[in-house]
TrEMBL record:
Domain annotation PucR C-terminal helix-turn-helix: ranges: 449-506
Signal peptide limits: none
Coiled coil start-end: none
InterPro entries listed in its UniProt record: CdaR-like_regulators, PucR_C-HTH_dom, PucR_C-HTH_sf
Pfam families tied to this protein: HTH_30 (PF13556)
Name of the protein this chain belongs to: PucR family transcriptional regulator
Amino acid sequence: MITVPGVVDRMGPTLLRTVHTPDPTPVVTDVVIAEAAKRTQVSAGDLVLGVATASTADAVELVRLCGQHSAAAVLLKPPHAARTAVRTAAQKAGVALVEVHAATAWAQLVWLLRSVLDAAADEATDALNPGPFGDLFRLADAAAAVVDAPVTIEDANSRVLAYSARQDRTDPARVSTIMGRRVPDDVLARFRSRGVFRELSRGRTAIFVPAQKDGTLPRLIVPVRMGGELLGSMWAVVAGPVSDERAAAFADAAPVVALHLLRRRAREDSDRRRSAELVRSVLDGTGSARLVAAELDLADELHRVVAIDAQADDPRAEGIRLALLERLTGGVGRRPVVADLHGVLYAIVPDGTGPGGWSALREALAVPTGPLAAAGTPVPVSDLARSRAEADEALSLLRAGLVTGPVAAHDDVWAVLVLHRTAVASTGAGVAHVGPLAHLRAREDADWYLDTLYEWLRHPGDPRAAAAALTIHPNTLRYRMSRVTAAVDADLGDPDTRLALLIQLVALRWS
């Protein structure tokens, strides 16, 4: 449990400044981004970021909304937080008001705030389960005191899990690492070229990296291992070479960090398994929608089920799914609910334009070389099983190439769905095996006969369009149709005959 002043203290005065704090001090539970296009879903204890606040009036309205829903604090950039009207509104609403440094990027601030909340959750767990571990931020502070330098603790994928105080005594590479919650690619490349990660994998107890020509300060790096597995590393920005005694003392913190990382992984795995079980039950239509909505924090609004699958012929399919799962569950704003079922990722996302909604996810997945993704129609939480079935159906069309990908929504591809369902039903009834079409299909050169008849029936009275679809000249189409008419023992002038033939051809092509 952490309060608003606790969050501000942890973030530091260079990022946040408290303008007003009500009494009693509010407790923080989550981070929410206030959207401009629609009314933001605010819950008790939320830190609400006024990203889209464009005027003092907007700020006042946001503060009032947050007060009505018992939010913990509203975070605004200058000059709105300092306006008298905004402060007065915060006092009346009983909401804390915090000013964000003007140069701070909102997306990076979300990551940092989530770090602080994660650390607070760890502290609460430590209080219930006393042990020698402590939370990672305290461990980072302790390690920094030992080595007399600012420290970050990172996982095996170079993502920042915690950092010590005194990060102002560092270089731009470290600032970018902390603000972005992971080591930037260009910084990783520099350290990789110096063999740092190779040394980490070899089990060295401490690695010293001298200063670099681009201004990057020296680093003392200690791998964090347990049972031979590399769990992460600790990085200290030092002024120069470190004595063996101080380096050894810094390395002594690694086993404690390793135990903490293992415990954190076990807790996250347990939470993820529980979440996945709830998602599976509601998608199968066997779980309680009310229980799922409460435990997974699904807002009372329409949601879509999105089915995401790696390209079938991609040998990296499993790795892509795992990377997608990590990306989806670590997004900005309220995180989507995700589970892996039978090799397909299913995400339950709000049908909206905000962060974590269907529009944002669709944009993120719309990459030609990315995975296939299909969404069901927007439904209440009680009807998610239907949206899942629709997502599966749309995904099958993407896989078959009947819909151009890589992303499709069930409600956008209805015409293809109608043809496909009609074709499947017609094929099951054997409609393509009766009448004159059966004789036409028996010919050795049946393909061009069938293609010509299909496009002619699809473009009634428009031979130019039919010819264009076949990439032939209209005169060639007329010649071919004379051959088709001679081969088909049917009156093509009869509308019912034409409709029956078209249904037969649809059944052949779309089933």
